[in-house]
Amino acid sequence: MSSYLEVFGVTSGRVVQSLDIYALRAALHRVIDKWRLLAGYVEWSNTLSKWCIRVPLQGDVSSRLKFTTSKKATRLQPSFVVNEQDSAHISTRPPLPYFRHESVPHDLQSYSSSKSPLLSVHVTELLNCACVGFTIPHGVFDGGGSWQILHALKQELHGKPWDPPAISQSNILQEALDDLERAPSMYNDIHQETATYSALRRYFVPRSVITVATILGRTVYEHVRHNVESKTVYLGPKAIVKLRREARGDLQSSEAPSVSMNNILAAWFFK
User: Are 268 and 251 in contact, with CB atoms under 8 Å apart?
Assistant: First the structure.
């Protein structure tokens, strides 16, 4: 799997040896018809002064899926296609256009003005495999939402039951901001930890000309000076099992709490 994250969009990609495009499109239409939130479109509310989603509760929603295809007379590296059980290696990441069509909007304003579908799927057929990309606006879905969409599609493709996620009436972000207002001491803790605060500022910066230029300059420097490249880490199923077994074996001799596989993979990646 390859993932590409932009400020306003998330694209997740899968590389498969074979693909039934018609079955994929039909399954996606069934998912959208059942999960009506996916059939909606982004709309700005002047009354509420925020982005909202207008959801059609009835009628045909087949047009609310952006499904595009393309063909390339080329091949991907075998490591992307062959399921190597014991393998663990680094490969060049397939280019983004293999997973995302150029016509997909890049910001919420474009999604709103064109009433574009929230879910865009692009399939690129290669000589030895197929690349399948799923793109959603990051202002509407996060990584968890992307996983829920892919889970629904998987269940639908295998004819298994699934239920659309319940819509929460609460605003999680606003609740978090309210908690900070009720506990101002948390701000003091951030300012007291100078090193931590400085580190956060490197990633969460105000959108001014100087700071944007600084980020662009740093990015260009890394690519030119250090020849930075985007890579994909492939871990075969047996490699992951071995990693999990070794990590949990180390924890048994300590008082550390139980950790999930995601924790283990994150620790391994940063190490």
Answer: no
Q: Provide the CB-side half-sphere exposure for 98 (13 A, CA).
A: 23
User: For the segment 159-213, what is each residue's pLDDT rounded down to a tens digit?
Assistant: 999 999 877 677 666 676 677 666 655 555 545 555 554 554 554 545 567 777 8
pLDDT at 101 over 90: yes
- What is the pTM (predicted TM-score) of this model? 0.70
State the CB neighbour count (10 A cutoff) for residue 176.
9
Q: What is the token pair recorded at 30? A: 């069934």
Got the DSSP string for 239-251?
HHHHHHHHHHHHH
- Going from the C-alpha of 232 to that of each of 88, 94, 243, the distances in angstroms are 11, 9, 18
> Is pLDDT of 45 > 50?
yes
Distance of CA 80 to the CA centre of its chain: 19
* 63-81 confidence digits (pLDDT tens): 999 999 999 999 887 655 5
Answer yes or no: are the C-beta atoms of 104 and 8 closer than 8 Å.
no
- How far is Cα 192 from Cα 206, in angstroms, rounded to an integer? 20
CA-CA distance, 159 to 227, in Å (whole number)?
Answer: 46
What does the DSSP 8-state code read for residue 130? E
pLDDT tens, position by position, 103-159: 999 888 889 999 999 999 999 999 988 999 999 988 788 777 888 898 999 999 999
Contact 53, 112 (CB under 8 A): no
b/e 43-74 (16+ beta carbons within 10 angstroms → b)? eeeeeeeebeeeeeeeeebeebbbbeeeeeee
Tokens of 127: 């000589």
CA distance 105 to 8: 9
How far, in Å, CA of 75 to CA of 104, rounded? 25
Residue 67, beta-bridge partner list: 121
